[in-house]
Amino acid sequence: MKKPLVVSLILGMLMVSSSVLTKVMTPAVIFTGQQNKINLETMIPREFGRWKINPSSIALMVNPDDQGLLNKVYNQTLSRTYISDQGELVMLSIAYGRDQSKDLLVHRPEVCYAAGGFDIGRMSKAFVDTTIGRIPVMHLVAQQGARNEPITYWIRIGNSLTRGWVEQKLAAIGYGLSGKVPDGLLFRVSTISNDAQDSYRIQQAFLTDILQAVRSEDRYWLVGQLTP
Questions:
Q1: In the structure, what pLDDT confidence band is assigned to residue 98 with cuts at 50, 70 and 90?
Q2: What mean pLDDT do residues 88-102 have?
Q3: Structurally, how many domains does the chain consist of?
Q4: How confident is the model at residue 169 (pLDDT cuts 50, 70, 90)?
């Protein structure tokens, strides 16, 4: 039996098992790693290292999600464009949802961008090495007309960082089987460029700097229980 088919069968069995258990046990415990209230606007610094907010570039940011859907799924969102001292532009988008139950899962960028009319190509799993630890990320390129947008993202479900549909579903199912509803956060950075590899290099530098700048007591909200 081919490996992709085996993975699909296993995932399908897990989803069926979770569905059956849901009928007899409704998760009642909202899982959060910390009890402090999250505030994205104050948590994420407006200036750090060689980066600062570039208000004149707000028009570059495209949010492919419908606003009504955003309000339903997320409790807080944050969108900013930063510029480096070398003139490099990075768009940052963070979305936090307290309830990661079946119909309220954080939306993956490859789905949102496709729904917004973008073509999605060159998706690959990768790692970003930072001063606070190694972060598993997804790389992809979204294209619409002349706009070519390389993207790096991860999704935190409870304590875990996930990439793509399978990892996100498995994390949510795991919490569901324990009777808990985890919170979740999407952390996405992107640039406008026809050179994806150079974009990922710039994004890695940005991620390293911003995670170092965020207060240590707030980093859990962004990366969960990351092992240094």
A1: confident
A2: 86
A3: 1
A4: confident
In sequence order, what DSSP letters do the residues of the chain get, joined into one string? --HHHHHHHHHHHHHHHHHHHHHH----EEE-S--SPP-HHHHS-SEETTEEE-GGGGGG----S-HHHHHHH-SEEEEEEEEETT--EEEEEEEEES--SGGGPPPPHHHHHHHTT-EEEEEEEEEEEETTEEEEEEEEEEEETTEEEEEEEEEEETTEEE-HHHHHHHHHHHHHHTTEEE-EEEEEEE---S-HHHHHHHHHHHHHHHHHHS-GGGHHHHHSS---
Do the domain assignments include residue 4?
no
Domain containing 138: what range?
29-223
Q: What is the mean pLDDT of the chain?
A: 82
Within a domain: 43: yes
The answer to the question of residue 12 being in a domain is no
